[in-house]
Write a structure and sequence with these properties.
single chain, 177 residues, Rossmann fold, five-stranded parallel sheet, 7 strands, 36% helix
Length: 177
Amino acid sequence: MNRTYAVETYGCQMNVHDSERIAGLLDEAGFIPVEPGTQADIVVFNTCAVRENADNKLYGNLSFLAPIKKANPNMQIAVGGCLAQKDQATILKKAPYVDVVFGTHNVGSLPVLLERAQSKKSLRLRFLNLWNISLQLFQQDAYQPSLPGYLSRLGVITPALFALCQLCAVSKRIEVR
């Protein structure tokens, strides 16, 4: 039986777009959306560092999932987005049962990160420091038209210069050489 997933979005339009990409990637990896009223095998929170109360919603829902995760250790919880990118240590401190924390530039790697976390239960995958990635890796993962969900219901999403969301308060430039 295929594993089910749910994607919760707390944030801006870019987060909504990224959540569409996440759902498309999980569909492509063989996961199926959870039926309403049932608990998903994989819960992904996509967060924003700018929007008011996004962090409160995240931590409240993570706390709600703690006993569910304890009762079902095969359940996976992933937290992504710019809040996760900014506060990875805080997330893992407040919710050590989170399996994967990922930033905005490794959205395309989420299925692989979930697979690695599932196969190595004792190894909790931590945030990948993507500010040190090479441009080649970036070009393989970020906002490529071949990725599911690229054509958003919000319209065409065009990544900002240096492929960073300029609406986001945690943006940094990637030096291109």
